[in-house]
Write a structure and sequence with these properties.
Radius of gyration: 23 Å
Distance between the termini: 44 Å
Number of helices: 20
Number of strands: 14
Strand content: 5-15%
Largest sheet: 6 strands, parallel
Number of domains: 2
Strand order of the largest sheet: 2-1-3-4-5-6
Mean pLDDT: 90
CATH class of the largest domain: Alpha Beta
């Protein structure tokens, strides 16, 4: 049945069968676009990126645009190569009259390749680029597209496909009223049945300004909110049992989130959820308790470093004591933590790897991710970086699993080997079983959570760690040649620019 549904989506699209317009649609497709096939495409990450499975959620920006077009009767669908588990075929590419690619830094090279291939198949077709990477790398991207949208395009997508903008680079303003955007239609995504956790965005922007992050450059410091009623409607529409709130800082406005919790309770909606939050949220212990009562299943926290000088250097506005308190408070209310760390910052030396693993073990952190500092274009970190330290321009490697800049206090290979060693120590067989024993011991302490939740949490924590252990084995295997290059190459660049 799943196969037939995803096949039907493509079949109708290729036949030029327009979806039925929404009852509130304000315009009908213009005559020259009436039977045009519009394809929104998210390229996959490279195979060397073992965390590409995390990119199986469709980006909600382009999905909203797909939804807008379909609501107005346009024949538009979305294809995510990671979600589809296969590259876009020549047959599908050739069928598209308009190809809209959304590019992140780590998918840009693949996106340019697809754009070139598409133009060979359809010289008369139109290629439109959007996304964070091309917004900050306009000159790099222009040779591969007919038009480029710099910034947020949701509110003008109809005018874009109707060719009302004649300039090659379309600069947009940030969307002021997010409530005017529709609920993303997951059924417009090829192979959408593989989305096991409902992706929901409740806000855009972040009031903080970490130097390595491009969120504020792209979406601004101002915290823009989707209406609570729309969020509730989205949860109902998806019939979600598990939700991933994709906000970069889900609880930046605690008062509003408490209102959301109250509405969820009033509607008697039963689901578990995960979200990205800052560690300093735990200073408000009552709020963390409300998160647990609202069925928070896990939080993702960017700890970045256990070296205070490194934290200060990237303007994290956090302290190690804040982190220790955060782990203590979240664990008190039975909320597991996925901690994310960055290695290779200017104050990091070879001791940082063992210090970080010891911090995680001592504080009982359930899962962790260790990445190399990556200077994404559009960040202050990139702008302020001495470019002579860049050792590659190949954006395929800008995934956190490869070394992009020369570290100050260790060699390239020492940094890479340190990351692998941190993973191996944290996810050792001994650590896996100690974590299981810890969850069993804590079983009677977390009475605010249901018995079923506590059992499921212990189960999930164990198998999540097993999964990460397998991922690290894949990372070592796929990057064995890469490590050899790091060790043996002494020149300034081990990869030349692909442009």
């Amino acid at each position: 049945m799943i196969f037939l549904k995803k096949k039907k989506l493509l079949k109708d699209w290729r036949k030029g069968i327009n979806p039925k317009p929404d009852v509130n649609s304000t315009r009908t497709p213009s005559e020259n676009l009436k039977n045009k096939r519009i394809l929104f495409l998210e390229p996959r990450g490279v195979k060397a990126n073992v965390f590409s499975f995390a990119m199986r959620y469709p980006l909600l920006g382009p999905l909203r645009m797909t939804t807008i077009l379909r609501q107005q009767g346009y024949n538009a669908i979305m294809y995510n190569e990671n979600l589809a588990k296969k590259d876009i075929s020549r047959k599908i590419l050739k069928a598209a009259d308009i190809l809209i690619l959304t590019l992140l830094t780590q998918t840009a090279k693949r996106g340019y390749e697809i754009a070139r291939k598409y133009k060979e198949l359809r010289p008369d077709g139109k290629v439109i680029f959007g996304g964070i990477h091309v917004s900050f790398n306009v000159e790099e991207a222009l040779p591969y597209c007919d038009q480029l949208v710099k910034g947020e395009g949701g509110y003008i997508i109809l005018d874009i496909v109707e060719n009302k903008f004649k300039e090659k680079v379309i600069e947009t303003n940030r969307i002021k009223d997010l409530g005017n955007l529709p609920i993303p239609d997951l059924k417009a995504v090829y192979n959408h049945k593989r989305i096991k956790i409902a992706p929901i965005l409740t806000s855009l922007g972040c009031p903080w300004n970490c130097s390595f992050c491009c969120v504020t450059s792209m979406f601004g410091h101002k915290y823009r909110r989707f209406p609570i009623e729309q969020i509730i409607e989205t949860i109902k529409k998806y019939k979600a049992k598990r939700v991933f709130f994709l906000d970069d800082n889900f609880c930046a406005d605690k008062k509003r989130i408490l209102e959301l919790f109250e509405r969820i309770k009033e509607e008697n909606l039963k689901f578990n959820w995960i979200a990205q939050v800052r560690a300093d949220l735990a200073r408000d212990e009552e709020f963390v308790k409300e998160m647990a009562l609202a069925n928070c299943a896990r939080v993702f926290i960017g700890f970045e470093s256990v070296n205070q000088k490194s934290l200060d250097s990237v303007v994290k506005n956090a302290t190690i004591d804040t982190y220790i308190n955060a782990v203590k408070v979240f664990h008190k209310y039975g909320i597991p933590i996925h901690a994310m760390f960055i290695f290779g910052l200017d104050y990091d030396d070879k001791t940082i790897f063992d210090e970080t693993v010891e911090f995680c073990k001592k504080n009982g952190i359930e899962s962790a991710q260790f990445l190399a500092i990556t200077p994404f274009p559009g960040t202050r970190f990139y702008d302020e970086l001495d470019k002579s330290r860049l050792i590659t321009f190949d954006t395929d490697l800008y995934d956190g699993n490869h070394i992009i800049i020369d570290p100050m206090k260790m060699t390239r290979s020492e940094l890479y080997k340190g990351i692998i060693r941190a993973y191996e120590r944290f996810y050792s067989f001994g650590a896996l079983f100690k974590g299981l024993i810890r969850d069993i011991k804590n079983f009677s302490k977390e009475k605010i959570r249901s018995r079923a939740f506590r059992i499921k949490k212990a189960y999930n924590n164990f198998w999540r760690s097993v999964g990460f252990k397998i991922i690290i084995l894949k990372l070592k295997w796929r990057n064995r040649k890469y490590l050899s290059e790091l060790v043996n190459y002494s020149g300034p660049h081990y990869c030349e620019s692909y442009i």
